[in-house]
Amino acid sequence: MSIISWVLRFPPLQWATSTLNDALITALRQGPIPTHVAFVCDGNRRYAKTHGMETSEGHSQGFESLKKILEVCLQLNVKVVTVYAFSIENFKRPKWEVDALMDIAKSALAQLGAHGDLADRYGVSVRILGETSLVPPDVLLAIEKVTEQTKHNKKAILNVCFPYTSQSEITHAVRSIVSASTSPSTPIDPESITESTISSHLFTSDCPPLDLLVRTSGVTRMSDFMLWQTGAETMVKFIDCFWPEFDLWRFLPVTSPYTGPEPDESILPSRQMQRLKAAQHRLAAANNLATTTRRPSGPMDNDDRAPLLGRTAGVAGGSEYPSGARGWMQQALVTLKVILLSNYINVLLVFVPLGIVAGMLHWNSTLVFVLNFLAIIPLAALLGFATEELALSVGQTLGGLMNATFGNAVELIVSIVALLKGEIRIVQASMLGSILSNILLVLGMCFFAGGLRYQEQSFNQTVAQTMSSLMAVATASLLIPAAFRASVPSDETTELLDLSRGVSIVLLVLYVLYLYFQLKTHADLYSEQESEDDEQEEKTITAWTAGGLLVVITLLVAFCAEFLVDSIDALVAASGISKTFVGLILIPIVGNAAEHVTSVTVAYKNKMDLAVGIAIGSSMQIALFMTPFLVILGWIVGQPMSLYFQTFETAVLFISVLIVNYLIQDGKSNWLEGALLMGVYAIISMAFFLYRPEDGNDVNRDSIGRSRLVQYDKLRKCIRW
Question: Around Cβ 308, how many Cβ atoms within 10 Å?
């Protein structure tokens, strides 16, 4: 909530605003008021994306805006209000999306018909115009209920076009005329069919002529809505704001042609409709109805048949810009704005140049570590954004493969840099730390955050168990090298490396099989989980832009990762903390911060399939793909990277996976389970804070002893506090 919105909620200001609105409505009611007003409620999805919220919240706010505008119209004594709610063309969308839109429609209809709501207070008769036979039975039941509840209201009419297109309406009218013929054997005289004949068989046959049609979001299209009813006297207005932003103060200029002495020259009347021509000609003519300023500040819509309950946003960098250098510059600025506003974490991008400069000028090692640590966090978010945008342009299967491959790209880049520098301990600790932080901290925060809002949440038990089974296999792949190392002489490192490389090849094969399982043979199991991420359905930048951004961000991450790794030795020597703690606790924060925020956010909004998929799926990807890949890469570059972890580390991973498998086996979660997981992670963090494997690459033994005493004293004081 913005500061202005918070201030406006102050009771005296609310009273003043309400009084001013009532006075304004009273003044407007004294002049000519349109009898029939229609709205194309466009821009809910782009409003949600612009404000960093879920698409469903954008639709919810759009419905609240519709109720407010409807109340304004009723207070102005507008007799008929028609809204475009759902196009027949929207049924061509994926099934999961259509089902989601139907749920929203069912909820909205129930609210409209509730006792004491607008329809009840203002005597509004709610009518559903369209091919209602196409909707599911439960939605059809909601339609029949709200229609029955409000059928005796006579003061005003609310027409909800759902599901509707003007072409379908005209076709329905023609069929009604034919079926109404008194003599089936006698053909209908074409000369007997007039404009009045067709008008009397439309869904709006008993409504007055359309006086005013309003479309928000700055899009200048009719979208196959009310084409017959839009006549020579109809005023069409395109408003340059999203529908949830449309209020009384934006509605006031729309009514000025009816209240002011001078006509609004920015509103051009539609051309004289040729009543008996095909609807396609009407749409082509209607696109030239008005000349209003298009939105230069955001992407435009490509799908012109999804007015209220959903729309796929267009691409920044399209054809809505003037030609030449000025248009190129405007397009570049819009694209840059979309990229920078893709995530709130991008505010940390200021640390990217600072981190690179600090590393190149050899500043204090601790400062270099901190600056590059903060710099990689927003770069990780941008890398995920670029990957998702590029995946939308290459198809579902290849896009899913890209998301799976680059899902943990930052951790992979940091680990590769560390591996090439011989920092095997950092690589192993960062892999283990990423797994633990995802399955314990992130999953625990998801359960806890969602549990604060919902008593109990459910998720896809089959998918979660599949990923947990794979995690158990990955854990076994670490237990076996540890058991092998304990059973053979300590100097037999060659056999251990050979075992690790063989196991890594098997794990990579299992990971490929899992991708084939997820993307091909059992894709239906994951369709619901993927459908919850609505933002992935909107392409906001071009494929070339996304590809270029991916390359640039990868290079920047490589630079920052190199300076980060180079500063670890000096940081360990100066602070006394171990490399294990740096790799296991600190480095996982770098690559997973944006992903962690996303998973907790969607869990709080009751999208647990997506939250569990992010947390456990990311851990599984690290265990089955990244860790064995680094072993093979170490084999290629001559670094002795193996799957042998210290006994304590292996035991911690085994216990963690066991606890997670036990908690998710019922497919349900609550806040207590989240607290348990976070508690386990806190215990492990304290243990690794004090844990130091005997590693010659760490600080010398004396400094280890001294630092242990200092750290123990600090931890003791912290616990006592």
Answer: 29
Q: Which residues pair with 87 in a beta bridge?
A: 164
Sequence-separated (6 or more) residues with CB below 8 Å from residue 272: 231, 232
Rounded to whole angstroms, the Cα distance separating 688 from 690 reads 5
Token representation of residue 285: 């003519």
Confirm if 101 and 87 have CB atoms less than 8 A apart: no
Distance (Å, whole) CA 47 – CA 569: 47
Residue 680: its pLDDT value, please? 92
Question: Which tokens go with 242?
Answer: 């999203």
Report which of 604, 668, 655 is spatially closest to residue 464, judged by C-alpha positions.
Answer: 668
Q: Which residue positions in the chain have pLDDT lower than 70?
A: 1-17, 20, 27-28, 30-31, 115-116, 181-187, 256-327, 394-407, 489-493, 524-539, 591, 594, 693-721
Q: State the amino acid at position 125 in one-letter form.
A: S
> 378 φ, ψ to 5°?
-70, -30
Find the farthest-apart pair of alpha carbons in the chain and give their distance in angstroms, rounded: 109
Whole-number pLDDT of residue 594:
66
pLDDT tens, position by position, 66-87: 888 998 898 888 999 999 988 8
CA distance 130 to 118: 22
In which element (H, E) is residue 662 found?
helix 647-664
Say whether the peptide bond before residue 163 is cis (omega within 30 degrees of 0).
yes
| Token representation of residue 412 | 């992979």
SS3 (DSSP) at 238:
strand
Alpha-carbon separation of residue 486 from 31, 51, 262, 492 (angstroms): 92, 55, 92, 11
Q: State the residue for tokens 């920015």.
A: 266
The pLDDT score that the predictor gives to residue 678 is: 92
Please say whether the beta carbons of 435 and 408 come within 8 A: no
pTM of the full predicted structure?
Answer: 0.52
- HEC profile of 260-308: CCCCCCCCCECCCCCCCCCHHHHHHHHCCCCCCCCCCCCCCECCCCCCC
CATH of domain 34-179+193-286: 3.40.1180.10
What digits encode the pLDDT tens for the residues 432-471?
Answer: 888 888 889 888 998 998 888 888 888 877 777 788 788 8
> Across the strands, what pairs with 38?
82, 213
Q: Could you give the CA distance from residue 213 to residue 159 in angstroms, rounded to a whole number?
A: 13
CA angle centred on 196, ends 194 and 199, rounded to 5°: 115
Contacts of 502 (CB under 8 A, 6+ apart): none
Whole-number pLDDT of residue 68: 87
The DSSP element (H or E) to which 703 belongs, if any, is helix 701-720
Domain 342-534+542-720 homologous superfamily, CATH: NCX, central ion-binding region (1.20.1420.30)
